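Sat 14:20. Reprocessing the chain from the morning session after the first attempt stalled halfway. Input below, unchanged.
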Amino acid sequence: MSSKSARKIATIDIGSNSIVLLIAQTSPDGSIEFLDEHYALTKLGKDVKTKRLLSDDAIVHTIAAVKELKTLAIEEGVDDIILTTSSAVRMADNRNRFLVKCYKELEIFPQVLSGKEEAEYTYLGATTDVVTERPIVTIDVGGGSTEISWGKLDDMVAGHSIDIGCVNLKEEFDLGVGYYLYKRLAAIRYLRKEFAKIAPDLNSWLNNEKATVIATGGTITTYAGIKLEKEIYDRKLINLIKGKRKELALISRKLARMDIKSRKRVPGMNLDRVEEMPAGLLIISEFLKYFQFKRFFISSNGLRAGILKHYAENL
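Finished this time. Tokens:
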């Protein structure tokens, strides 16, 4: 009989674009149930790729938002809180100042995840509830990086992190407002160069087998909301719905051609992601196209779910 006790645990992940709190309940038998999710948009990673610095305003805004989410987690009876951060902080030359400030004000020192750790946790989370004997490929588009992993159901074979996400791709190629074909084509060329770096390993491992492709992250869950025309995010409703590459590419182009006002009126659009959606969807669309994946699943379980699963398994 397991000696584990039931616990309520939470992770607060400080991303490049948003902060996400995920709360879960563990059981003595080792199972885990994801209960509630909250997020705040802080754009900590704005301009980090070019300037290599976290701005003072973004630091203050981010820590204030984490404080609120920590308070919420405590009010919901959480026993343990894991605080993580990733690509924006990894890139920043002033990351130590940010980390020390977090510790002083939050009394928790953030764990800075490496790109490989992000890929591993994302794979662990994304494969939750998945039943398949096929090879699995996962993609998670964040604000400042994109994680691509592959393996079999309980065994990740490889994980890669690309230093491009919906925020810095938007900034670098000015994809937020207006449809300019030359900018979009330049972004596509850049993405293809990045995908080419992992293509030999991934294609060799797949060896022409059909893969189960799973996409996670805020961009794709917002896409799911648009697809379902649901204004309110429902992680259980969204989890493991099917998507098609051609349909995603079509919506990606439509959103890119809209001005911000029109984009805000799209049913299911998350208003906090209006500017980044064309860039985020372009990453996923070009990934699917480059590797000739026609279909995919959308998972509401990604990085945060993987962190909590890993933590629960090691309690």
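Residues 181-206 form the longest helix (26 residues).
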